[in-house]
Amino acid sequence: xxxxxxxxxxxxxxxxxxxxxxxxxxxxxxxxxxxxxxxxxxxxxxxxxxxxxxxxxxxxxxxx
Length: 64
Hints:
Blueprint: H1 2-25, H2 29-34, H3 39-55, H4 57-61
Helix pairs in contact: 1-3
């Protein structure tokens, strides 16, 4: 599970960086690299979204 956790975390971080670029500079890096709403960019958005949902489970596994 640790490998899946790290992979999901890395993809969530990449997604957060992309959203930061959109917010600060109006640059959607995924659309810039793969094309606006192309099949590849939609797959990337979907995978990052699923990783974000999976990352919610981190909250239940945090140890004080």
